[in-house]
Amino acid sequence: MRDLNGAVAVVTGAGSGIGRALAQELAGRGAELALADIDSEAMEQTRRSLGGTNARTYIVDVADQGAVQNFARDVGSDFRRITLLINNAGVSLHGTFAEISIADMEWLIRINLWGAIYGCRYFLPLLLREPEAHIVNMSSVFGLIGQPGQTAYCASKFAVRGFTEALRLELKETAVKVTCVLPGGVRTAIAKNARAGAEALPGCIREDAERFDKLAPTTAAEAARAIVRGVLKNKSRLLIGADALRIDLMQRFMPVEAAGIFATSVAKRVS
Predict the structure, then answer these.
(1) Given CB 3.0 to 4.6 Å as the disulfide criterion, which of 15, 67, 159, 187 pairs with 42?
(2) Among the listed residues 192, 238, 184, the one whose alpha carbon sits nearest the alpha carbon of residue 216
(3) SS3 of 45, please?
């Protein structure tokens, strides 16, 4: 995409973090916004932060296929066109594979993976009508390397990366460009708001959130600016943060050893 002025952008997970920062960045560039989140109060806070921008908010659980289908229908009715889809909604889960339940894992994968798949499925017909359009799916550096204590999250983000790369090739001859975003540590509340696994140790969320805050070098606003620049440059793959660049480089040259180098003390709970 060459210009976002007058574009109609859909952003999920827009109630906080990178999603809110994306809404603010896109509004500053003249886009109209269809913003979704499951938290109505957070959505209202985001909307108020946008000033006079033409923004509509929708309460949507992206893990619910029917809800996303209805969301796409409503946005199509309200705006008549969509030029940019950012599947940003995501959650985290604390605990090793032994500490989380199958229900925990299904909960995370429905949001992180199926939320992106549903978004692409139901918004793609609208995007294909445009002379130029774009899809952004949020993977992670944990879609590049596995980490102890992150089996569910890594499973979802590796899958998002594979899905996005395949979709990009399938849409190559259309006007819809596709970007896979792989952020490193971004200072949001995702770790603090994570769910604890069914058998996770008491205090794991607080400990892991404190560790995450210390290791996250990038702000949500910085991440949002980088993502929007990537869209304008039609980047197929976008690494966010110096830490993401280092991890990507290391896993290219040491694909087996790289994950172990970045493993945290969570690994102690596996043994």
Answers:
(1) 15
(2) 184
(3) helix
Contact 34, 126 (CB under 8 A): no
Q: Are 10 and 75 in contact (CB under 8 A)?
A: yes
Instruction: Flag whether pLDDT at 264 surpasses 70.
Output: no
For each of the domains in the chain, give its residue range(s) and CATH number, in order of start: 8-269 (3.40.50.720)
Is the CB of residue 184 less than 8 Å from the CB of residue 217? yes
First to last CA, the chain: 49
Q: Which residue's structure tokens are 């798949």?
A: 117
Report how far residue 26's alpha carbon sits from residue 43's, in angstroms, rounded to the nearest whole number: 16
Give the residue numbers marked as catalytic: 153
Query: Which of 74-78, 84-88, 247-251 is predicted least confidently?
Result: 247-251
Token pair in block for residue 172 = 């190559």
236: which DSSP letter?
Answer: S
Give 171-229 pLDDT, tens digit per residue. Answer: 999 999 999 999 998 877 665 666 777 667 666 656 665 555 556 678 999 999 999 99
- Residues 1-43 have pLDDT tens digits of 889 999 999 999 999 999 999 999 999 999 999 999 999 999 9
> Residue 109: how many CB atoms within 10 A of its CB?
19
